[in-house]
Automatic annotation (TrEMBL):
Residues 65-453 form the Amidohydrolase-related domain. NCBIfam families: hutF (TIGR02022), PRK09229.1-2 (NF006681), PRK09229.1-5 (NF006684). InterPro entries: Amidohydro-rel (IPR006680), HutF (IPR010252), Metal-dep_hydrolase_composite (IPR011059), Metal_Hydrolase (IPR032466), Metallo-dep_hydrolases (IPR051607). It comes from Hylemonella gracilis str. Niagara R. This is N-formimino-L-glutamate deiminase.
């Protein structure tokens, strides 16, 4: 369902700005002073010049400028579930009981509702400082489990949603075939997810030129080891690599202890151990969650160059457990963050939750600070931008991640007039206040994505219409999914 654009949104979508001057900007090597940022009509940085004076006529940022944060794991339709599972329905609630409502929602959502929910979500993401999203998309078919006349119908809804909002998109169609290890047949609740391997490769062929036109990245997501049998995983990876050797590959793995136990019973190996022994995992992979690994799995997985896709607020919401980030970093591992089920849509809050989970696990403070970056919010932002760009498949050859020449012009300006930022003298302290003292208030002032100004005064130009459409779609879904 295409939504009309306001005149302001049309202007920002068709007239990309070409420069911004920032007194403080967070570059890949750390904070820099008096930075001139320039980009071309395609929305890519052409110059990042510290130590400059503001040229006449160039817009000046009112506060510190950050690179936009990639959101490396999203199930857009699950935003419609927000707040609906926060009650005890069984003697011991867990991910597995939460999943029943998710299946009801997935079974009922229409293409029009999916597009409305995704558009509203992507607008929220931009307002919260995300500028790229990796959409882990597994609802493929109609409510009866049959293919639409156009097999790409629901993927196209997500492409349109991203285009309307103006967020960068990495589309990851999900391969899903079984309900458990050893080829257990899928359940009725999974009927809309199921695809043969050849069908998936055909879908990727169909989507590739459409993604290229929009500037979206296309990859593949084998859902999990329990949902993709070994032969299908091997064939899908071979087919993908024949189409695009650099395509990103994302997989849920070792999220739940129950999954680890089931994998051990099936194969005699833990999930990450099995994957590393049976697939050529490399820097194009994102291991989503990977919460429950042993010491050898941490070491071996980090050595592949794969990114750990951490979703702190969802993992906390579902009671998954705590990723041992200190051990991962000691092994040289890379990481990024995602909002997953969208219990929270706030880039700063994902970083806060990640640091706080490590503090609780280690009983220490400022765990994720580094020798080079002692301010933990600065260190985390740089790491999440770098790992997120790698997992998104958006790193250009020879370019770093974030605010550097050759990369997409994705940037976030903090509001220096925000009550918690006023009176602070350094950008490090301002970013720390944004991440750790926001009290759910956003200190984001403006956001550019692909060189186009999408958010001003903390609000997206399409905010009102996107949210109205989201509310309407959510009400319809709730009416159709009540038990």
């Amino acid at each position: 369902m295409a939504m009309p654009k306001s005149p302001e949104a049309q202007a920002s979508a068709t007239q990309p700005g070409d420069a911004l001057f920032a007194a403080h900007a967070l570059l890949p090597g750390g904070w820099a002073r008096d930075v001139l940022l320039q980009w071309n009509a395609a929305g890519a940085f052409t110059a990042v010049l510290p130590g400059n004076r503001p040229p006449p006529g160039v817009t000046q940022a009112s506060g510190p400028v950050l690179p936009g944060l990639p959101n490396l794991h999203s199930h857009a339709f699950q935003r419609a579930m927000g707040g609906l599972t926060e009650y005890r329905g069984t003697a011991q609630d867990s991910f597995w009981s939460w999943r029943e409502l998710m299946y009801r929602l997935a079974g009922a959502i229409t293409p029009e509702q999916l597009e409305a929910v995704a558009t509203g979500l992507y607008v929220e993401m931009l307002e919260a400082g995300y500028t790229q999203v990796c959409e882990f998309h597994y609802v493929h078919h109609d409510a009866n489990g049959q293919a639409y006349a156009d097999d790409a119908t629901l993927s196209l809804c997500l492409l349109r949603a991203a285009q309307t909002a103006g967020i960068g998109l990495t589309l990851l169609p999900v391969l899903y075939q079984t309900s458990g290890f050893g080829g257990t047949p899928p359940s009725d609740g999974q009927r809309r997810f199921i695809r043969r391997t050849d069908d998936m490769l055909a879908l990727l062929d169909r989507l590739r030129p459409l993604c290229a036109v929009q500037g979206a990245r296309l990859g593949l997501a084998p859902h999990s080891l329990r949902a993709v049998p070994p032969d299908a995983l091997r064939a899908a990876l071979e087919g993908l690599r024949a189409q695009d050797p650099t395509a990103p590959i994302h997989i849920h793995i070792a999220e739940q202890t129950g999954e680890v136990d089931a994998c051990l019973a099936w194969s005699g190996q833990r999930p990450v151990q099995w994957l590393l022994d049976h697939a050529s995992v490399d820097a194009h992979w994102c291991l989503v969650h990977a919460t429950h690994m042993d010491a050898d799995e941490y070491r071996r997985a980090a050595a592949t160059g794969a990114v750990a896709g951490l979703c702190p607020t969802t993992e906390a919401n579902l009671g998954d457990g705590i990723f041992d980030l200190s051990r991962w970093l000691a092994a040289g591992g890379r990481w990024g963050v995602g909002s997953d089920s969208h219990a929270t849509v706030n880039a700063a809050e994902e970083l806060l939750m990640l640091e706080y989970s490590q503090r609780l696990a280690t009983r220490q403070r400022n765990v994720l600070a580094t020798t080079m970056q002692p301010h933990v919010a600065t260190a985390m932002t740089l790491a999440a931008v770098s790992g997120g760009a790698q997992a998104s498949g958006t790193l250009n050859a020879g370019a770093g991640a974030g605010l550097c020449v050759g990369q997409r012009a994705d940037l976030v300006e903090l509001d220096a007039a925000h009550p918690l930022l006023q009176g602070l003298n350094t950008p490090e302290d301002m970013l720390s206040a944004h991440v750790f003292a926001s009290h759910r208030q956003s200190a984001v002032a403006r956001v550019w994505a692909g060189g186009r100004l999408r958010v001003q005064h903390g609000q997206h130009a399409e905010s009102a219409s996107a949210r109205a459409a989201f509310i309407h779609a959510r009400r319809q879904l709730l009416e159709n999914t009540r038990p």
